[in-house]
Amino acid sequence: MVEFLNIFIGGLILGGIYALIAVGLSLQYGVARVLNISHGEFIMVGAFLTWAMYTFWGLNPLASLAIVGPAIFVVGFVLHRTLFTRLRTSSASPAAYEGGSLIATFGLMFIIQNLAIITWGTDIEAYSFLNTGVSIFGARFAANRLTMLLFAAGICVVFYLFLARTRLGKAIRAAAQDPETAGMMGVNIKRVLALCFGLGALMAGLAGSLLSMCYPIRTTMGLEYTIIAIIVVVLGGMGSIVGSFIGGLILGMVGSIVLYIDPSLSLVAYYFIFILLLLVRPTGILGK
Amino acid sequence: MNSVASIVLNRSFQLGLLAVILIALATLPLHYQGYNIVRLLNIFMFVVLTVSWVIFSGSTGYMSLASAAFFGVGIYTSALLGDKLPIAVVVGIGALVSSCVAFLVGALTLRLRGIYFAIFTFGLVELIKHLTLWWEINMEDRRGRLVVYVENDIIFWVMLSILVATLLTAYFIRRSKWGLALQSIGENEEAAAHMGINVTLVKVITFAVSALFVGASGAIIATRWTYIDPGIAFNPLYSFMPVLMAIFGGMGRLLGPVIGAIAFTYLKEELGTEFPELYMLIFGIILIVAILYMPNGLVGLIQRLWIRGFRRQDADT
Amino acid sequence: MRILEGEGVSKHFGGLAALSNVDFHVDAGEIVGLIGPNGAGKTTLFNLVSAALTTKQGVIKFKGRKITGLKPHQICRMGLARTFQSVKIFGNMPALTNVYIGSLFGIPAGTPSAYAAKGAEELLEFVGLSASKVTPAKDLTLVNQKRVEVARALATKPELLLLDELMAGLNPTEVAQAMELVTKIRDRGITVFVIEHVMKAIMGVCDRIIVLHHGEKIAEGTPQEIANNRAVVEVYLGE
Questions:
Q1: What ipTM was reported for this prediction?
Q2: Which residues of C touch B (CB under 8 A)?
Q3: Which end of chain C is more exposed for a tag (fewer CB within 10 A), N or C?
Q4: Is residue C230 included in any domain, yes or no?
Q5: How many domains does chain C contain in total?
Q6: SS3 letters across chain A
Q7: Domain check: are C100 and C71 in the same one?
Q8: Contacting A residues, span 228-257, partner chain B, CB-CB under 8 Å
């Protein structure tokens, strides 16, 4: 029972953060059509900002969410309004835009990562926050991990309500279905796309902040998270936000089980699932 | 058009120039030693990687991020067999094994289109890397291996031969019926199939051929690195770089990827050892500028300026 | 002689039957029309014949040989060429190269390239496009892109040509030219199987017409017979 709880709650913790990361990427790819290779760099920046504010100013990491989120959102929004909007208008076809924007995000990845290396170096950094054990029916978890799960789940729920209930959320969903028609229905498509990209970046940043509470961080950690996000997005079906959420939980569970069996195999397992999935059902579990 | 231009554009002049360059390069180790040779070696390697990538992905539009897998397979061939067989044989085996891997991967996955193919090939590199890592740690209780020592001059000549083979292959494919088939697949695969082109066969074979050179260059360059491990051998940068260099140089002509690879590798050699992060930063910036302002790459840009220059001259006279 | 015949051909997409148990045939030298409302399964039938889709139920024979299970390029090389409802040209290549590719790859033994190039020029002239040989195909007008497709298909030296809505989106003059082109193609000894929405065109040019509705064959006969067929009239005028 304790072992089961260990694996299950461990899976939820991993899954929650994977879902948050993947929903962000899914929003950027599903709506804005940018497969953002620099997604993990936004996670890394979020993590380092939180770490820096905690170590140098003593700011509570949870309070820093309120600073990191909006700051990274603005960066994402502006990037889309300048770089990606320009690319979009100059591309010959949607496919050309997807290719071009993919390459541009490679460029962004190099820029962000190396600016971070110049600023913060390449050492592993960590800090201790809420590092006490909590017992759930005998299974013990660090309080910071449970907090991370709580916040990740909370952000996903808030975001879901935003998409489902608000006018802007409906505009985003319309744009995801069919940008041209949405544009004709009076949706300001440029702003919605930039908003989606910004929101995706925001979620990456928040995920980074949360991650920094629990795990050691490095300026070179971004790509690994990008890859996990891509795996989850493919698992859930490209462009399906609910799919990304479910995919995140599934991959988290798998990760937790594999960690229990043999920790050194977890990345192998992820890639194995990923490759198998692409061969058997490339559209993912919820894809069309 | 003026006379300088007509000389430059003359085919036999171009061939002659190429021959002179080739002879100069081949005899270089006889005059120079040390660092310059090594620097050229890296340039050759990236030209091989970039042109091989263009052979398949440039024409068909299937964006492969598998170069690092083929490269790493070559590297590991060298690490495993380097001290048992003559180096030329090892390079040959590296090429063949990479090519077989490419053939299998191609046969399995080339039905994936667009972005799916790109991320699949990318995932493949990571899978191979982590599997190798897991195998080394758990089955052999080690991490990484030493690679046999080979003299710099020999490495240089072998790499130069691979480079020449790659360029010749790319050149002849471009001018052949086969190249036309590849191009038509890139334009519209379905129509190509209905025009009598065996699209699966053409794609898989081209993919396998392009991997030959990548595997061979991995096998020879590994001997310079002395020590390798899965992280070094299957570094995804070897998948990204060729793509980015080709796009920077422009793929409309064979010269584009060559120039792209030379420019970036030169920059890397200048900055890379002392300020690696500055190099990567500049690389990122140039890439974004290229994608925004140079849709046909550097060579396309130069061509445009060149043509504009002539128009102006014509107008003056 | 039956150049093309299908028996019990069916196709399902998910749970939806796009074609159910259709028998059809085309005789050598004929122009046969395939008509029916949107979603009747016309293009699906063409896709099955040309192997763009795989046939799992039913048998399709070309020149008496079973072709179900073959790949598109094999079918093309047997002498069965097609055009597409939404044009699928090689956009960045000159019109001539589009046609050249057809003659280079569409024939089993392969054509010597000089000969193929000459044939391609002749075919561009045949469809009335000799003036835009070097124009990239994507810069041509829709009607000219369709002509490139026809020339490209003809370049593979077909015995049977499938034309999928050659006349959709054309103005009356262009429709008349297209009808003339179809007759000219038949005069070259090529059997033609056409999907068409433009009724006047199909009635004027076809020897025989097959009508599909909801994936089933509801009628077959000469244009006069079809025009007077009650089931067909009901389908077109609404039940």
A1: 0.90
A2: 50, 52, 71-73, 76-77, 81-82, 84, 88-93, 97, 100-102, 104-107, 113, 152, 156
A3: C
A4: yes
A5: 2
A6: CHHHHHHHHHHHHHHHHHHHHHHHHHHHHHCCCCCCCCHHHHHHHHHHHHHHHHHHHCCCHHHHHHHHHHHHHHHHHHHHHHHHHHHHHHCCCHHHHHHHHHHHHHHHHHHHHHHHHHHHCCCCECCCCCCCEEEECCEEEEHHHHHHHHHHHHHHHHHHHHHHHCHHHHHHHHHHHCHHHHHHCCCCHHHHHHHHHHHHHHHHHHHHHHHHHHCCECCCCHHHHHHHHHHHHHHHCCCCHHHHHHHHHHHHHHHHHHHHHCHHHHHHHHHHHHHHHHHHCCCCCCCC
A7: no
A8: 230-231, 234, 238
